[in-house]
Design brief:
14% strand; single chain; Recoverin, domain 1; 3-stranded antiparallel β-sheet; alpha+beta; 5 helices
């Protein structure tokens, strides 16, 4: 599994910069594209539904260069149910957070 760079993550969000007076606007990735990315990293299956572990989720974003604190921080944001697994719905919601203009700062 190859880790995604920040630039790739933002590209998945479909960043669109407008040169006029409007601030940078970010277009979200399609559900199909997100599902494809999610399936690439998710290895856990429960009742037919795919899940990522916290470590798989963080490795997908940071590669092998991460520490335990990074895992806890990022996974804690994405794993809203706090069950140690990240569902597609949680992954999609996290992508939405990355696509907010404030996420760039």
């Amino acid at each position: 599994m190859k880790a995604l760079t920040l630039e790739q993550i933002l590209n998945l969000c479909g960043m669109v910069a407008y040169c006029q007076e409007s601030p940078m606007q970010i277009k979200r990735a399609s559900t199909d594209k997100l599902r494809e990315i999610f399936a690439r990293y998710a290895t856990q299956q429960i009742n037919g539904e795919l899940f990522m572990t916290s470590e798989e989720f963080v490795r997908g974003f940071l590669g092998q260069s991460y520490n335990e604190e990074s895992v806890k921080l990022l996974a804690g944001i994405a794993d809203t149910s706090k069950d140690g697994l990240i569902s597609f719905a949680e992954f999609q919601a996290f992508e939405g957070l990355l696509c907010t203009p404030d996420a760039l700062y």
